[in-house]
Amino acid sequence: TTTYQKPTPQKSKERPVERMKIAVLPFETKGLSVDIGDMVLDKMITSLVNLGRFDVMERAELEKVLQEQQLEISGIVDAATAARVGKGIGLDAILLGSVSSTGGTVSLDARLIDTETAGIITSKDAYVYSKDITSIKKIVDQIANQIVADVPEVEGYVVQVEDTTIFIDIGSDKGIKKGLKVVVYREGEPIKNPVTGEVLGKKIIHVCEAVARVVQPKLTECHIVKSTETPMVGDKVIIK
User: What's the CA dihedral at 93, 177, 160, 154 to 10 degrees?
Assistant: First the structure.
């Protein structure tokens, strides 16, 4: 049995590169009213935003973007379609799910789909023996916490490069799993205020993105899927 944990609003950790950008699609409802599905959708978006791990597209923004491309949210019913549509509008992942009722039990399941591969990054489910709105919101919070826990925000370094393959010093002991994306970057020279001489920061050079393929306890082999620079040993890495 999973202990319920309410998401705690967090100040977003400063990141040198962008976060994983995701959208949450309307939850399919079975044996429950559409209003319950809408409530679950809004609550999931709020919970994920409060946890601060992802760059979450607002519901209204998603609907606007889809309308501009003459697409309907209701037509996105499977992982392959979700991945294709999500990739087309610049998302890294899409959250699909359903909420259903059998007798007095309400079940909720959610899958985070990678838009590049249509593979499942993580999937979670929970249930509650009640149709009470407060109880349903609690299991939404529970699943949001579990999803975030499965995509840890950890950093490391490139330790070896072989053509389109990089090896990084982040392994399963730090929570990385096969299929997760990493961003490789390097820091340039410090940028100073020309008047005061104060160091304002460093130029961040985006090198590439790669997908974890073979995961060992302290080492992960990743395949490069997008690059703007050639990666080098010593470049920094962070899970997207």
Answer: 80
For the stretch 223-230, contacts whose Cβ atoms lie closer than 8 Å and that sit 24 or more positions apart, written own/partner, are: 223/164, 223/165, 224/164, 224/165, 224/166, 225/116, 225/181, 229/186, 229/205, 230/161
CATH of the domain at 54: 3.40.50.10610
User: Residue 12's pLDDT is what?
Assistant: 46
pLDDT of residue 2: 40
- C-alpha 142, offset from chain centre: 16
pLDDT at residue 118 tops 50: yes
Percent pLDDT > 70 in the chain is 91
The amino acid present at 70, given as its one-letter code, is Q
Indicate the pLDDT class of residue 171, thresholds 50, 70 and 90.
very high
CA distance 195 to 157: 35
Residues 79 and 159 in one domain: no
Closest C-alpha among 171, 165, 201 to residue 184: 165
Instruction: Kindly state whether residue 4 falls inside one of the protein's structural domains.
Output: no
Mean pLDDT of the chain: 88
Instruction: Give the range of the structural domain holding residue 54, as residue numbers without chain letter.
Output: 21-149
Decide: 54 and 68 in contact? Cβ < 8 Å.
no
- The yes-or-no verdict on residue 181 having pLDDT over 80 is yes
For helices 34-51 and 59-68, angle between their N-to-C axes, nearest 10 degrees? 110
Q: Is the pLDDT of residue 72 over 80?
A: no
In this structure, are 113 and 95 located in the same domain? Answer: yes
Two tokens at 9?
């609003």
Provide the greatest CA pair distance for the chain. 71
